């Protein structure tokens, strides 16, 4: 009886040991299994190769199999090639980092690759400057983040925790006649209006707030990046995140419907801040620079660089910070600019540099 019991114990231990060894072997074999090698590879363009907007892109594919065809996919384009080396001129492309899908067919096999390129602008931005048309008082307490008009009413949003608010201003006096403050936990950023809704971003909280024209909060929305500048382009909201990326949102549900990356002929433009849209272009402040750039919203190309240097020479203030704030008054075709804690708001006209 004792021997039978001992035998059973031995069998159980043996099974446990063998099972354990089997599991270890399986894990080892799995972790050491060689990666399945592809039969094809993209040789050209090289990863993140710089190309010029509107130019030809040369492709070269290597394959260890006899290929039947190669399919290139980008946007609405689906093009079939029979050779391993070919050239493609995009019908439509944007600046910045772009990804081109390549499918290689060989018999019953197909492999998918992504060719990554960086598209630079094909133009040198036009050099522009400004002319001061008029000056108006502005509160030095306003850490200006957003600026726009509702008809004849000037609206601004300000930042800093505990000081962030959305305000309606008297253009001629600079006085606030209606405002609503954000909770002290939030650092306010850009703002804009679409139909009867006013949208107000926050910097790093990934949340924005919605108000009606009477500045009563009616909702809020979320996003996955920092909030910097904001503008309205028809039925689309335009948002900057402090990098080179411009986000396009559907104002109805605040879903992201597209992006562009802002580039000139030399590379990406970062620190894109407060925004405005008019005359078919996005106007953008560049944080800590005395310039405003214009951006083609369909491609991301920088079209103009407006030199705003000297504007601060028109006032004296120890608290004034960077240029920030562009507002376009559509019913009178007027442009207004200001800055963080600036004591003045300027009506300006942009013009070509002599």
Task: Draw up the topology in text.
Layout: H1 2-32, E1 40-44, E2 49-52, E3 57-63, E4 69-74, E5 77-81, E6 85-88, E7 96-106, E8 109-120, E9 126-137, E10 144-150, E11 153-158, E12 165-169, E13 176-181, E14 188-194, E15 197-202, E16 207-211, E17 217-222, E18 230-233, E19 236-240, E20 245-249, E21 256-261, E22 272-278, E23 281-286, E24 291-295, E25 302-307, E26 323-329, E27 334-339, E28 344-352
Parallel strand pairs: 2-8, 9-25
Antiparallel strand pairs: 1-3, 3-6, 4-5, 4-7, 7-8, 9-28, 10-11, 11-12, 12-13, 14-15, 15-16, 16-17, 18-19, 19-20, 20-21, 22-23, 23-24, 24-25, 26-27, 27-28
CATH architecture type of the largest domain: 7 Propeller
The H/E string reads HEEEEEEEEEEEEEEEEEEEEEEEEEEEE
What is the name of the CATH superfamily of the largest domain? YVTN repeat-like/Quinoprotein amine dehydrogenase
Q: What value does the average pLDDT take?
A: 91
> Approximately how much beta-strand content do the residues carry?
over 45%
CATH class assignment of the largest domain:
Mainly Beta
Question: Keywords for this structure?
Answer:
354 residues, mainly beta, Immunoglobulin-like, Methylamine Dehydrogenase, Chain H, 2 domains, eight-stranded mixed sheet, five-stranded mixed sheet, 1 helix, disordered N terminus
